[in-house]
What we know:
Layout: H1 4-11, H2 25-57, H3 62-82, H4 91-109
Amino acid sequence: MCDVNLVMSKHLPQSHQGEWAEPTKFDELRIKTDIQLVQLVHAELELDARHARQTLQSADTWDIAEECHRRANRASAKVVGLIPLVAEFPAEQRNGVESQLARVQRMLDAPSGLG
Length: 115
C-alpha cells in the first residue's frame, strides 16, 4: 500500500501535523485510488497528444487522419471525465493537465487537422 502519512504530510499545514491520526483502511484506499487515477489521467493525456500528432502528420491520408482524430477526441473525453474523480488533485497539477489538454485540443482544431 502507499505511505498515507507521507501523502498527508504534504497536504496538512505544519501546525496540524500532529492531529493526523493513524489512517484508516478507507484513507489508504482513497489515496491509492487518487494516485492511480492521476497516473491514468497522465497516460490518457499522453495517448491523446500522440493521436493528435498522428492526425496532423496524416492529414493528407483522410481515413488514417480521421481515425487518429477520433481516437484523440476519445482520449480527451476520458481525461475530462477522470479529472473530477481525483479527490486530492493539487491545483498546480490539475492546471498542468488542463493546460496540456487545451494544447492538444488546439492541435486538433488546427487548420491542417480535421474538423
